[in-house]
Write a structure and sequence with these properties.
Layout (H helix, E strand, L loop, with lengths): L4 H17 L25 E3 L24 E8 L11 E9 L6 E6 L4 E3 L5 E3 L2 H18 L7 E5 L1 H10 L3 E5 L3 E4 L6 E4 L2 E5 L3 H7 L8 H25 L1 H13 L1 E3 L11 H5 L7 E4 L2 E7 L2 E6 L1 H13 L3 H7 L9
Parallel strand pairs: 2-7, 4-13
Antiparallel strand pairs: 1-11, 2-3, 3-4, 5-6, 7-12, 8-11, 9-10, 14-15
């Protein structure tokens, strides 16, 4: 089956949307399962230290391993919403991220946008960027993000519900992340206390969801939470990549189940099974993790907002539009502390 330009992109970005959807603010839910799969029996529902996280698997060359994409960079907007209905794809865009795949298909750059970033809306008005979706739908959010990024072309948009995130976590046997901030949190709905140690940990069952929601116990709040989103996405893609390499038949069925419950623009769900080979090419040991720079936390009216550092955001936008953020990273690094001003 032929693979179109946009269909290839969906392999990783559908997984990204599942991860972000899992980070919305909701009570700890019962864990759903993807159809046709049984969770790894080793999944115990705890944040387990992991001294030896899985490395990016080495793809096995096959006759069909042909990159179907034309030359060029691919950009996707990926987001999850804060709807209380696990089957709903409405509400505010509670976790927002731009993913850029390089022209050689090996480099992935993840750029978070704080949900409370105070921005100009496409079509007029100003407000928190997460309200662009609730007030104008996917296209308004897409255009608002594009405008913020200096007219960056957005080739596709992926949105998912959080049930898929828990199911994928269990099917993968957990998601490995490098945790920057040790935290301890109590789940309101169950009273369960969960501790996340600093360093390499394995997040199993609903703990991955809890990990991505936490913000109040971390020094930079939503900015630290956004960093966790990017860590979860990288870990989730690493797991999906390993399955694509080691058990391609299972990957195809799983991917179909995920896309059937997702909302993705410019993507033909019938082609999802063809996406394993392109996914294998991404070097997940060299993901660039960034954030739209924030000068300070502030208020507009009665609303708490994040004030975007506009000059530095223009530099980031220029780098993304060029398809190469290495110069920006060399100048500013991958940190996301408040810049001041």
């Amino acid at each position: 089956m032929a693979v179109t330009r946009r269909s290839m992109i969906g392999a990783g970005f559908i997984g990204l949307s599942a991860a972000l959807a899992g980070c919305s603010r909701q009570p700890e839910p019962p864990g759903p399962m993807l159809p046709d799969f049984t969770p790894d029996p080793s999944a115990s529902g705890s944040a387990t230290p992991s001294a030896q996280p899985s490395a990016t698997p080495t793809p096995t060359p096959t006759a069909s391993s042909v990159d179907p994409l034309p030359v060029g960079v691919v950009n996707a907007l990926v987001f999850g919403t804060d709807s209380r209905d696990p089957k709903s794809l409405t509400g505010n865009a509670d976790a927002i991220l731009v993913a850029q795949l390089s022209a050689d298909r090996e480099k992935l750059t993840l750029v978070s946008i704080a949900r409370d970033s105070y921005v100009d809306f496409a079509g007029g008005g100003k407000g928190k960027i997460n309200a662009a979706f609730s007030g104008g739908g996917t296209e308004r959010l897409r255009n608002t993000v594009s405008d913020l990024m200096g007219g960056l072309p957005i080739h596709m948009v992926a949105q998912n519900n959080f049930n898929n995130f828990i199911a994928i976590t269990r099917w993968l046997g957990g998601i490995r992340v490098k945790n920057k901030n040790a935290t301890r949190t109590r789940v309101i709905s169950t009273g369960r206390v969960v501790e996340f140690e600093e360093g390499d940990i394995l997040l199993e069952n609903t703990d991955a969801l809890i990990y991505g929601r936490e913000r109040k116990t971390m020094p930079l709040g939503d900015l630290d939470r956004a960093e966790r989103h990017r860590a979860l996405i990288t870990g989730l893609l690493r797991g999906l990549q390993a399955i694509a390499v080691e058990r391609p038949d299972e990957f195809e069925v799983m991917a179909q189940n995920v896309v059937n419950n997702a909302k993705v623009t410019d993507f033909d769900p019938a082609l999802v099974g063809d996406l394993a080979d392109p996914l294998k090419k991404i070097n997940l040991d060299a993901v660039t993790s960034l954030m739209v720079p924030i000068s300070r936390f502030g208020t507009v009216g009665q609303a708490s907002v994040c004030i975007v550092n506009e000059p530095r955001t223009r530099e980031l936008a220029e780098a993304l539009n060029s398809g190469d953020v290495s110069g920006y990273v060399a100048k500013y690094g991958e940190g996301y502390a408040l810049t001041g001003g």
